[in-house]
Amino acid sequence: MSVDFYFNPHTHSIPSRAGLKAQWKKIPNADVLEAIATEAQYLNFHLFILKSAKHTRADCLTSKPYEYKLGLSVRAGAIKAALLLCASIAEAALRAHAEKRGYKLAKDPKKRMFGNVLNAWKSQGRPRPDVASIWDELIRLKDVRNNVHLFKAAFDPDSNFRHVLKEERALISELTTVLNHLKGLESR
């Protein structure tokens, strides 16, 4: 089915990378800071699309124009994509700080993935105090990120698009909480 799209609101200000770099200025690695600012800029735009995209059937003359939000699997896919972007930003920020602080990470930099990075942020089996308040959200982000492996996700009821849609509000709220918290993380 062909559809026509419309954005409501149709205008959006995308933050500059320089402005985003200022928000993330505590990242202790300039290259990682640049990468985070780039992804954060796209995430901002992606969330605008998710929130604002409306559509109607291209050949429909009987319904109100542009009354439908993105729905079903398309919307769930957009939510999952936003979470993947957030998880990538979180992983990069946490890894940069962990490396600066000398936390124990895999010796091979190629193995410093999200799970390994999160393990470095534990001390005596518990999350370190400066990430403890967002620990559950970080674990959930890691789990959602693992659904990028579609064969595995096909057997995970939490990756079902209906489940993702049901949890949308909570997932987007957690995404915002994690990113806002990590902007304030500091390593000397």
Notable traits:
three-stranded antiparallel beta sheet, single chain, 5 strands, mainly alpha, two-stranded antiparallel ribbon
Explain the overall architecture:
This protein has 188 residues and is mostly helical. Helices cover 58% and strands 9% of the residues. It has helices at residues 17-23, 30-52, 72-101, 114-120, 129-132, 135-146, 150-153, 161-166, 168-183; strands spanning 3-7, 53-57, 68-69, 122-123, 126-127. Strands 1-2-3 form a three-stranded antiparallel β-sheet. Strands 4-5 form a two-stranded antiparallel sheet. Strand 4 and strand 5 form a beta hairpin. Helix 1 (17-23) packs across helix 2 and helix 2 (30-52) packs antiparallel against helix 3. The longest helix is centred in the middle third of the chain and has 30 residues, at 72-101. The radius of gyration is 19 Å and the shape is globular. The protein starts with a strand and ends in a 5-residue tail after the last helix. The mean pLDDT is 88.
